[in-house]
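Side project, low priority. Logging it here so it doesn't get lost.
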Amino acid sequence: MTSTNSTLTLDFLDTISTPVNFFLMGLCVEVSFAALLDLTPRLVTAISQTRNWKELPVLLIFLISINLCLILNNFFDMPAWFPEFMTQDGCVGINFIDNLLWHIFFVLFDTFILWKSWIVTDKNRLYLAACIVAMGFRLSTGILDLVWTTAYWDSQVGCVYNQSDFSTMLYTAADAVCDAIATLGALTMFLKSDLGGLLSFETLWFRLLKENVFRSGLTLIICSIVMFMSRSPLVPLNILYMSFSAQQYIYIRLANLELHYKDERKVSQTIRITAPDASTRKKSSVAARQSIVRSAGVTDVININSDSTTKSK
């Protein structure tokens, strides 16, 4: 009975996978296009204020690259779903470019979350080495997939796309490794015993910590699910493609969430700078009391640290 239910579920998902996949692809393009409209003016403003290459807005460049790559990937992915519109001349080239853009998107995203977690670890060298190894693994698996996943023209059926199951499993596992390292990097802040007040809910560090743990943790969960599906022989290819599109949509949402986080941090820092701290308020209160006492003809000797007052005529 359980096997029958599982089969029916897979059949149902396989039936709806194509329209759902198109819907997710449309959402990806819409989200990325909206993000580009927001990011481009920010980049122009930031570059106009840049005095040398060291001040280049790396974050904005990263986000624009990720969003632009996703739009192009979905554009080149469309002919794969309509093979009747694929020509013999474009069969191999279009599929290769589509696969290349796919890998560039995930490499950029993995680099982005590892970079953000590296900042949270206070730019630890050992963590940086682990990130470099993980990205090397991801790049190598991507290159293998570009070699092993091929397309060719068949005179009877048209353009045929052969995706390598083994390389798919490898690069999905590499993504999971990057996500796991990013999550561990973000979590290391909780393990530090010398933070003192840094982990208070109002600090910039705690905001960075929350953002990276949420983003990296969710990314790891999604990637693990996709990796499990890619290894299962029971999952039809259309359902796997649908899960890939869902993965892209979640990833681009998480990447663009950085804009919201950045604006939040800026507002928080502005409030912290403009709001008087405790010592300033204390000194202001002391000064007010001194003025009142002097106006009464009394000399006020005040210890600011203990807030005690000694009066003498």
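Brief comment: Strands lie at 150-154, 158-162, 299-303, 308-312.
Revisit when time allows.
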